[in-house]
Amino acid sequence: MKRSVIASNLHLHLCRKLFSCLLGVVFLGSIHAQDIPNRNDDNVPAQAELIYQKGLDYLAKTQSEKGTWSDGTGSEPGVVGLCVAAFLAHGEDPNHGPYSKNIRAGIEFIISEQNDKNGYIGNSMYNHAFATKALAESYGVLNEPKIAPALQKAVELILSSQKRNKHGGWRYTPDANDADTTVTGCQMVTLFAARNAGILVPDEAIKKGLAYLATCRTKDGSYGYTSPAGGKPTLTAIGSLCLSLAKERDSKGYEASLAYLKKNLDFRDQHYPYYFEYYMSQALFHADDETWNEWNTRNIRYLATIQFSDGSFPGSQGQSFSTAGALLSLALNYRFLPIYEK
User: Fold this and answer.
1) Residue 41 binned pLDDT confidence (cut-offs 50, 70, 90)
2) Rounded CA gap, 115 and 209, in Å?
3) Half-sphere exposure (Cβ direction) of 333: Cα atoms closer than 13 Å
């Protein structure tokens, strides 16, 4: 990291502490903003940094003034949230850095898409979760007072949706009665990110979410979509990550899931490759250093071979989503966001 950036981040660290205290007194009471540690670039593989920087440059150049991207799903608030997270996960200064306008534009778009009455963002719980997660990761870091109330409302909707769900999980809409591992997983990760930002998330909500996910786990540790049938590595990575974030890695279920993931280090999801990359990297990071280092080395090599010359990544969901997903699978090398800390 350049000295000027270090100085900027130190200044930002002090400013966001003051900002979080003011917000806590004025609006959210006991909520305290998250604290983002400085990274050590000496530990980041050079090829990973090259891939990441090219990807960020692509996202910055192709973002519209509105804060969205014109390709595929790039106009959806959830994808915008993932793109914002990709900037923040690299330690970019959201107030004065070279990508500050990109981060701010993305956050402003997300807030503009929120329903004023119920806090719902977008048209699906996928969108809502990833957009809310971006708000949580921006809160206390980006000098924008509108984030606090928007984040609070968004989290309340996730919690109220779970209370109405007879399975204790989530699916495509806030009022859904059924559930699946993918939608439940992204809500759970978002709730953990919200906790890191200081938002109150009841333990009961976490327990109920984990209980539902456990009903989709088989004896071999793999997770299915809506039941134990048809276990897949992508779904298993989601379930394993949620257990890690909940500090429940001592369970037999977690051990079985980790063993399953270790057997599938060469797996590539043909339908949602970057969704898999995003979750697999996090799941293995929380597992053990040897496994994650092996995965990380393979992942860097793989991403280097498929990245386009303009810095983007191919994919049927649009290059903004693909690029954000690919970059976030490398974000554990930086560990700049609280959600990426063990």
Assistant:
1) low
2) 25
3) 26
**Span between the terminal Cα atoms of the chain, in Å:** 22
**Containing domain of residue 328, as a range?**
3-340
What does the alpha-carbon distance between residue 44 and residue 6 come to, in Å, rounded to a whole number?
A: 16
Residue 333 · residue 81 · CB < 8 Å: no
Distance of alpha carbon 146 from alpha carbon 137, whole angstroms: 14
Q: In this structure, what DSSP letter does residue 123 have?
A: S
pLDDT tens string 282-305: 999 999 899 999 999 999 999 999
Q: Which long-range contacts (CB under 8 A, 24 or more apart) does 144-150 make?
A: 144/104, 144/107, 144/108, 145/23, 146/111, 147/107, 147/111, 148/23, 148/27, 148/28, 148/31, 149/27, 150/110, 150/111, 150/114, 150/119
Q: Which of 130, 132, 138 is nearest to 34 (CA)?
A: 138
Instruction: Determine the pLDDT at residue 72.
Output: 87
In whole angstroms, what is the distance from residue 123 CA to residue 115 CA? 10
Cβ-contact 169, 227 below 8 angstroms: no
pLDDT digits (tens, 9 = 90+) for 48-106: 999 999 999 999 999 999 999 999 899 999 999 999 999 999 999 999 999 999 999 99
Whether the full predicted model's pTM is greater than 0.85, yes or no, is: yes
Report residue 31 as tokens.
């909520």
Residue 3, judged by CB atoms within 10 A of its CB (0-12, 13-18, 19+), counts as exposed
The CATH number of residue 180's host domain is 1.50.10.20
Identify the residue whose tokens are 């995003």.
278
Q: Tell me: the pLDDT tens digits for 221-262?
A: 999 999 999 999 999 999 999 999 999 999 899 999 999 999
d(CA 32, CA 199): 8
Number of domains in the chain: 1
- Which tokens sit at 269? 């999801």
Q: What is the pLDDT of residue 160?
A: 98
Residue written as tokens 């910055």?
Answer: 60
